[in-house]
Amino acid sequence: MSSIYGRLGFDAGNPIAAQAVRPMDDGVLKQMKMMPPFLNAWQTKDVAEANTGGYFQNPVANTIINVNITANTMMKMANGNPLVGTTSTITKLLANTKNNAILISYSNTEIGISSECNNFTYITNRLSNVVGMDSDMTTPHYQIAIGYGKMMAYITYQSDGIQNNSPMMGSFTSLYTGNTLNALIANITPLLTILTNSLSGNNSSISLSDAQKLDNNMYQMYTTMYRCRTSDTAFYQNSAAVFSDYNNATQFNGAGQTETQLIQEVIGSPKLLSRLNANT
């Protein structure tokens, strides 16, 4: 049976190593026994067996794959040729839907669903902790975002009376898009069948109503991912900024006599002194 101590590989058969080992004193053992357990039963077993991977999953991974498949099906319609409807309005709707390009007005950037799927996979893998942290400090990652969230929950409860978990969940909304995206896929799939059956070459007899529904659902599929991804990123970055300001503002708490004297008499700005002295 595996054990944590066994994993350490202490060379007990080496007489030199054995000379370094001494029994713990009674006082040390008493202190050891007073410590609360660091690991429960399953944690002890997993650590002993080096089996601590696979604890997390991306809840929308398969959904994103299906979104991408749905978008690519539309893009490849009529072998990639432009679709022509029975009216110019329908033709325009089909072109917009097929290209999967929604103009982001404030950045003048066109990004299709397939590209957004890559971005969305990246952020949801990070938020669900199925990939490790790296040098990217601008996109939220579970290990940092959850820490910020816990601090923001305490801070905003005291500062603003917030009594819900939005300060923690504001960076994780992308992980809750599965139901919405699956519903949109379910809406789009029969419409794609209708479109396929309406084709003669690259000419389509699809109705205006169905063309509008197809375009709207494809648009909603894109904006659902885009909105949640950018919102999570902004919330995470805002939390980081608030936490930095929190540290700046609270660095004076608990200052000792010498530090207080230094601040009050030498390095404290009029702004700081007015705040400190107003609280004394």
Question: Layout of helices and strands, plus pairs?
Answer:
Layout: H1 4-8, H2 15-19, H3 26-34, H4 41-48, H5 61-75, H6 88-99, E1 101-104, E2 109-112, H7 113-127, H8 142-160, H9 166-169, H10 178-198, E3 199-200, E4 203-204, H11 208-250, H12 257-267, H13 270-278
Antiparallel strand pairs: 1-2, 3-4
Name some characteristics of this structure:
2 domains, 13 helices, 4 strands, flat, single chain, two-stranded antiparallel ribbon, mainly alpha
If you had to describe this structure to a student in words, what would you say it looks like?
The protein has helices spanning 4-8, 15-19, 26-34, 41-48, 61-75, 88-99, 113-127, 142-160, 166-169, 178-198, 208-250, 257-267, 270-278; strands at 101-104, 109-112, 199-200, 203-204. With 280 residues, it is mainly alpha-helical. It contains 13 helices and four strands. Helix 5 packs antiparallel against helix 7, helix 5 runs parallel beside helix 10 (178-198) and helix 10 (178-198) packs antiparallel against helix 11 (208-250).
pLDDT < 50 runs, ≥5 residues: 101-109
| Pattern of helices and strands | HHHHHHEEHHHHEEHHH
Strand order of the largest sheet: 1-2
Global shape: flat
Calculate Rg over CA atoms. Answer: 29 Å
Distance between the termini: 62 Å
Number of individual domains: 2
Q: Helix proportion of residues, in percent?
A: 55-70%
Structural class: mainly alpha
* Sheet of most strands: 2 strands, antiparallel
Overall residue-averaged pLDDT value: 92
Estimate what percentage of residues fall within beta strands.
under 5%
The tally of beta strands, per DSSP, is 4
Number of helices: 13
